[in-house]
Amino acid sequence: MSTRDTDLVSAATEPLHMTPTLQGQAGSTDQSILESTASQLPGKKTVTKSKIKRMTLSEEDVASVDGWLTDQILSFYFKYLKRERCPYPYRQNIKFIDPAISFLVLTSCSLCEIRTVLMPLKLESRDLIFFPVNNNLDMQGEGGSHWSLIVFIKATRTFHSFDSLQSSNRDPSRMLYEKLSAFLTSIDVPGPFEFVVEATPQQINSSDCGVYVIAIAEELLRRYLGEQSEEMNIASERHYLFVKKMRDFIYRLISSKMCEEDLDGTGRLISNTVHVEVGGK
């Protein structure tokens, strides 16, 4: 086991202190931030349009930054972590699973279905994998009410479960672990595998779970990369400040990635959807 893997396993069992890369000050987070900062977008690398990868955020997705984060916002932030927070040499070792993929695995009825979903992702070659977990188990239903996170560390064959609302996602997390273990076994990844419930900072309302998921993911990524950060216990009295700053940063991140065709000549949005750049090929 490498020193990095050993440090990450040790870190996963320690109380989490998270300081995401925040910009600006905490304040009201509403859609006006998108328009007010659109005219001050940071410099972008010149990339031909054919090589730019984009995703669409609906008005509902953007509005969710002030409340219960949608799967599209989690997906957007995971892409940001992979493309901009993870140096190129390490990208091939790390995988952020899209919430839609986690949902498909969770609701799959057979190992054959799971293999169809996961085989293209080449998970056997990843050292660190992040799986968002939602408590919606109905393939025909909409939404869900809680997000949590499972992190797989290949070196120790362990799945680490982080839940910011006590054990609210205990059942779907355990179910996802069992299905992922069966899949990894089927592609000859050595087992046995272990499921570890980690002590996790707790949210103080019913809507901050998505913020905790991306903050925990970012902190664990930072530890994997060996980065140092100032400690900020989000379970402390500074919780409100932390969450407001995190939400404000997500808004500003969206505004910095907006495509020019979504704006009019004054920098205001011209439709109910936003197309954001999430990296090149």
Report the total helices.
Answer: 10
- Report the average pLDDT across residues: 79
Q: What spatial form do the alpha-carbon principal axes imply? A: globular
Strands in their spatial order, largest beta sheet: 2-3-4-5-6
Rg value = 19 Å
Class computed from helices, strands and strand pairing:
alpha/beta
> What fraction, in percent, of the residue positions are helical?
25-40%
The major beta sheet can be summarized as: 5 strands, mixed
Which stretches are poorly predicted, pLDDT < 50 over at least 5 residues? 18-51, 232-237
Gap between N and C termini? 31 Å
Helix and strand succession? HHEHHHEHHEEEHEHHE
How many beta strands in the DSSP annotation?
7
Strand content: 5-15%
How is the topology of this model organized?
Elements: H1 3-12, H2 32-38, E1 52-58, H3 59-63, H4 71-85, H5 88-91, E2 94-96, H6 99-107, H7 111-118, E3 128-134, E4 147-153, E5 158-162, H8 170-186, E6 194-197, H9 209-224, H10 239-257, E7 273-280
Parallel strand pairs: 2-3, 5-6
Antiparallel strand pairs: 1-7, 3-4, 4-5
Helix pairs in contact: 2-10, 4-9, 7-8
Please explain how this structure is put together.
Mean pLDDT is 79; it is low at 18-51 and 232-237. This protein has ten helices and seven strands. Helix 2 (32-38) packs across helix 10 (239-257), helix 4 (71-85) runs parallel beside helix 9 (209-224) and helix 7 crosses helix 8. Helices cover 39% and strands 15% of the residues. The protein has helices at 3-12, 32-38, 59-63, 71-85, 88-91, 99-107, 111-118, 170-186, 209-224, 239-257, and strands at residues 52-58, 94-96, 128-134, 147-153, 158-162, 194-197, 273-280. Strands 2-3-4-5-6 form a five-stranded mixed sheet, sandwiched between helices. Strands 1-7 form a two-stranded antiparallel ribbon. It is globular and about 55 Å long. It has 281 residues and is of the alpha/beta class. A hairpin with a 4-residue loop joins strand 4 (147-153) and strand 5 (158-162).
